[in-house]
Each structure stands twice: as structure tokens, then as C-alpha cells.
């Protein structure tokens, strides 16, 4: 479930043997955990450790590393931009050193800062991240690309980020397989035409979103499925492919997260991807 590394520097190097072990662990659905890898803030950046920096109606603050634009924040965004750019650079460097096999193929996604306490947050059922789920996007189809995320707990009070980790992805798929329905004829074209989705939704994205929704909606599944509580202390970092690892964030406040995307063909073993697992279980090709 956890593959633990003792590194305490974002600039550390890793032996070829450790790099091999790390990529195998990651692609097999484990969380790479760095209990001693903290992200240090400057005095000015520590002033951002308050929910007041979050804009009204925003779930988190996002940063585009390509444009350096910050969204979802209240007030002056200059310090936030500097902080989040530095976190992106550290996360990118960590992955380049730890998993050089991916370096040329990773696609940069958004950086996020999450200053709100998760526990007790009012939200809709499908947006409730305290319920076990795998990541899928309703508006942004990703055509099977892996979702690789780097998280760091920067809580100034020492509070842990508490997760549930659930069962392996293939077991989740097989459990919900009888309820996974084909899309209605023409619905994917209509969603794109109406700009509900940013691009045409592939069959892969259809089934992944359906799986995400059914997991969150099922009280029976949430109550009965085997799950493990994992605490990520303040000052720790973890790396995980959240499209295949069933997870839920139960509590915690003040988190930095960096998203990357990886084409399935550039994995060391593509057969471990959600795309290939879904295709095997459903017995059909899903990138139409």
C-alpha cells in the first residue's frame, strides 16, 4: 500500500535499483511515501496559511505553471504565484530524479493549494472527497492518460492529512461492472456541442466517470469495502496515481498538490493502467 523512502531533500538523487522499485510500486497501485520530505515556506509565504486567501465559492486555489496565472484566490496573488511555482519546480524535479523513465513524457497539469479543512466541509455527494473514489473528470476528458499527483502537507500546526485507501482498481471495476452502462446514442456528441465537455468524451472517460460516481453514491460500498486509514503527517510528501488508487481524504488542512498526466504508452507496464484493465473487463476498446 505504501512504498516508503527516507529522502529529506527535493534535490536528492536515487540509485537505478531504487528508481526501478519506485516505478514498479507506483504502477502497481502503491503510494510512494516520503515521511521526511517537507516543503519549507518563507516568512512571507507563511502568511498564506489561512483560509482567508481562498476566493469566495472556490474549493481550492489553482496555478497554471505555463502561464503563472492564479485562480480561486482572494487579494494579492504575487506571493501565491511564487510559492506555487516553486512547488511545481520541486515536484517536477523530484519525479525526474525518482522516475526518469517518465521525464520526457509527463504533461504538466495544474498546481493547487488547499487551505480549507476537509472534515465537515459542505459539498454535494459527487464532490465529497471524503468518500472513496478514483479520479475522473466530468468536463475534461483525458483519453486514458494517467493522473500522477504529488502531495505535500504544509500544515503549520502539525496536523496530519488523513486518507482512506481502498481496494485495488481491478477489484473496484469488477464489483461495479454489472452496473456500468453504455452511453446513450449521441449523448457524447451533444455534451461536446453544448460545451459541457471541453472535448469529445471517449468511452474510457465515460466509464471512468461512471465508476467515480457510482463509488461515491453507494453507501453500501462505502460502508462495507475494505479500506485502510493512512495518516500523512505535516512535513511529509506522497506520490500516487489517483486514477487507479481508490482513495478518500477524510481530514486535514493546508496542502500543496501538483498534477501531471502520462500517456499510457509511456508507462513501463501499460497493462496496469485503468485503460487496459477496463478494456479487459469490459472486453472492448475504449478509445474510439
What does the model show?
The chain is of the alpha+beta class. The protein has one domain: Jelly Rolls, CATH 2.60.120. Helix content is 28%, strand content 20%. The protein is built from eight helices and eleven strands. The strands form two sheets. An eight-stranded mixed beta sheet has the order 1-2-9-6-11-5-3-4, covered by helices on one side. It has a three-stranded antiparallel beta sheet with strand order 8-7-10, with no helix packed on it. The longest helix is centred in the N-terminal third of the chain and has 21 residues. It is globular. The two termini are 33 Å apart. The model has no long low-confidence stretch (mean pLDDT 97).
Question: Summed up, what is this model?
Answer:
The protein has eight helices and eleven strands.
Quick tags:
single chain; 288 residues; alpha+beta; Jelly Rolls; eight-stranded mixed β-sheet; three-stranded antiparallel β-sheet; 11 strands; 20% strand; globular
Layout of helices and strands, plus pairs?
Layout: E1 2-4, H1 16-27, E2 31-34, H2 43-46, E3 61-64, E4 69-71, H3 78-98, E5 107-114, E6 146-153, E7 161-165, H4 169-176, H5 187-193, H6 203-217, H7 219-224, E8 228-232, E9 237-241, E10 247-251, E11 255-262, H8 274-282
Parallel strand pairs: 1-2
Antiparallel strand pairs: 2-9, 3-4, 3-5, 5-11, 6-9, 6-11, 7-8, 7-10
Helix pairs in contact: 4-8
